[in-house]
């Protein structure tokens, strides 16, 4: 929806001062010079993000203000993170972890999660962060596909995977944070091992093209795929954080995302620390009072969050805001789903600041399109391409479409943080580049006459619920594992708060009857098995699920029927 008003900005003095000029003259190679050790001898993002700051006069600067739901507070300086990550890197090396090995993280947002990701990078190993809301099925898929050798988790979360361990022959060690139980042979206590370890660790210099992290994300078909990024990503992480999030040396920054989502890894770890910025980590669930108290207490200046959270804050009302001093805030950004103009208007009213929407994906590794501090905001638009990024609206043959025309959002391939592979799946990787010269995003959009991009929707069946990307196939597969379910078709339906919610059409096995109790049971089953965010909020029991003659579920038809839209070509529908 195009919104007529434009929010004009006052001139800015820092960061990306002149968008047009910078866009025209931008060269990625110039950014390499911002790093300490970007040479043919090798690089390491952990050195650039942590160790160099700890060694160059910022050892006492706070890297992380940490707080949890019970108001426990901790502070970590850059030298604390350097020391603790070196200790853990030594522990991992003693367990046999080498460059290229996969170490997976199944942790809430404890400080150990952040330290672990740095430690893994120091070794040249590959980190695989996972949401702590995942159930056994989701964890198994990821560990199995990546052949992870080490898992770092808590005793509580590890119980969820006890039943699947047998199916993971590559998994050799589990490191448990806060283990108070007797440990099995393959289990190690995080605390006692790191206490014993040396705090001196020689960083492994790697090739910029060596793998850094793998994050699994959903497509329309098949299991989640392991989108793999490399150390060279640091070029994009560093400069996009500086220019799109407008971070400066003296900022206190809060990214509300979990590292299980790419936003939490890139802009909740690497981006701010490459920029030597102090950041806040809140390990807890959304709560309007708590969130505002965090901004007040830590005097947060830059806040990066998501539309669903902003809509929930809007729903919590304006009175609550009056209880807190939010005057430290100077810049707000949002990502993950369409940001509706109403929220921007509300933000202007209550925070006295515009909210800057930006667009990117797990695969792009960094912000691609953004509303920049120096540009006017058109509420509802994702903004303009980042310098060095060529974004265009194209058709299925790669022809660039004129302004105003809806089409596929394509990016000219080759920026530093573009995905380098899909783990063990070259075919999936190649699918992104089917249109010659272009990386295709799977999104549809249009560009207006001023060069602003507007999100239209997904070109595929992928569901975006509260910023979580969910593949319908994964939910369908988990559903049919329930004893009552014979068949299931899953779609996303529009929702004012969460962008979309998941709806499942379910055919029951003989002997089972539809009932509200069964619905609840099925929802609980998916929450536990797959992930808390991936359960169908709506369930409709039906006699059959429409399929093509070749047996594929026709989600397009389910959606058209649900939304009262034209059903299109039905020639392939099974009779
Ligand atoms: P993920 O890789 O999980 O971050 O999901 C990326 C997808 O989220 C994109 O392909 C879009 O469909 C959606 N998305 C991300 N940012 C925005 C945005 N600013 N506006 C609309 N959709 C977005």
UniProtKB/TrEMBL annotation:
AMP-dependent synthetase/ligase domain residues: 52-409
InterPro entries assigned to the protein according to its UniProt record, in alphabetical order: AMP-bd_C, AMP-bd_C_sf, AMP-binding_CS, AMP-dep_synth/lig_dom, ANL_N_sf
Pfam families attached to this UniProt entry: AMP-binding (PF00501), AMP-binding_C (PF13193)
Stored PROSITE patterns: AMP_BINDING
EC annotation from Swiss-Prot or TrEMBL: 6.2.1.1
Family, similarity comment: Belongs to the ATP-dependent AMP-binding enzyme family.
Protein name: acetate--CoA ligase
Gene source species: Candidatus Scalindua japonica
């Amino acid at each position: 929806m195009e919104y007529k008003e434009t929010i004009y900005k006052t001139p800015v003095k820092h960061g990306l001062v002149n968008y047009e000029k910078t866009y025209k003259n931008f060269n990625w190679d110039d950014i390499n010079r911002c790093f300490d050790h970007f040479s043919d001898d090798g690089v390491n993002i952990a050195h650039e993000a942590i160790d160099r700051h700890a060694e160059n006069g910022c050892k006492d600067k706070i890297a992380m203000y940490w707080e949890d739901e019970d108001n426990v507070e901790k502070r970590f300086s850059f030298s604390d993170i350097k020391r603790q990550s070196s200790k853990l890197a030594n522990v991992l090396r003693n367990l046999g972890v080498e460059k290229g090995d996969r170490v997976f993280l199944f942790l809430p947002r404890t400080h150990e999660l952040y330290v672990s990701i740095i430690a893994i990078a120091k070794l040249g190993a590959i980190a695989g962060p996972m949401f702590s809301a995942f159930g056994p099925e989701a964890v198994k898929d990821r560990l199995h596909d990546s052949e992870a050798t080490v898992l770092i988790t808590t005793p509580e979360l590890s119980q969820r995977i006890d039943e699947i361990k047998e199916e993971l022959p590559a998994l050799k060690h589990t490191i448990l944070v806060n283990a108070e139980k007797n440990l099995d042979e393959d289990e190690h206590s995080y605390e006692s091992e790191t206490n014993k370890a040396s705090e001196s660790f020689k960083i492994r210099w790697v090739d910029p093209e060596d793998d850094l992290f793998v994050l699994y994300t959903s497509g329309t078909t098949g299991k989640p795929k392991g989108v793999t990024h490399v150390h060279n990503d640091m070029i994009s992480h560093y400069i996009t954080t500086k220019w799109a999030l407008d971070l400066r040396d003296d900022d206190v920054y809060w990214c509300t995302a979990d590292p299980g989502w790419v936003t939490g890894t890139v802009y909740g770890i690497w981006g701010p620390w490459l920029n030597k910025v102090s950041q806040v980590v809140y390990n807890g669930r959304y709560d309007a009072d708590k969130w505002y108290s965090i901004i007040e207490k830590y005097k947060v200046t830059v806040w990066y969050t998501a539309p669903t959270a902003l809509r929930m804050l809007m729903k919590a009302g304006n009175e609550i805001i009056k209880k807190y001093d939010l005057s430290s805030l100077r810049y707000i950004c949002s990502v993950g789903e369409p940001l509706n103009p109403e929220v921007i208007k509300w933000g202007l009213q209550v925070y006295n600041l515009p909210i800057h929407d930006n667009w990117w994906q797990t695969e792009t590794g960094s912000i691609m399109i953004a509303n920049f501090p120096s540009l006017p905001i058109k509420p509802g638009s994702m903004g303009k391409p980042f310098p060095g990024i060529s974004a265009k609206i194209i058709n299925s043959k790669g022809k660039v479409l004129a302004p105003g025309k809806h089409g596929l959002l394509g990016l000219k391939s080759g920026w530093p943080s573009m995905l380098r592979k899909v783990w063990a799946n070259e075919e999936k990787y190649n699918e992104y580049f089917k249109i010659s010269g272009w990386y295709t995003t799977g999104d549809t959009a249009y560009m207006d006459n001023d060069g602003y991009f507007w999100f239209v929707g997904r070109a595929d069946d992928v569901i975006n619920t509260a910023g979580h990307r969910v593949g319908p196939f994964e939910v369908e597969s988990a559903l049919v594992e329930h004893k009552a379910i014979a068949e299931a078709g899953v779609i996303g339906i529009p929702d004012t708060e969460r962008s979309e919610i998941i709806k499942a059409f379910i055919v029951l096995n003989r002997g089972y009857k539809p009932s509200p109790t069964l619905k609840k049971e099925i929802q609980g089953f998916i929450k536990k098995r797959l992930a808390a965010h991936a359960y169908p909020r709506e369930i409709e029991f039906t006699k059959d699920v429409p399929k093509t003659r070749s047996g594929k579920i026709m989600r397009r038809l389910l959606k058209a029927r649900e939304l009262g839209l034209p059903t299109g070509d039905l020639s392939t529908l099974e009779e």
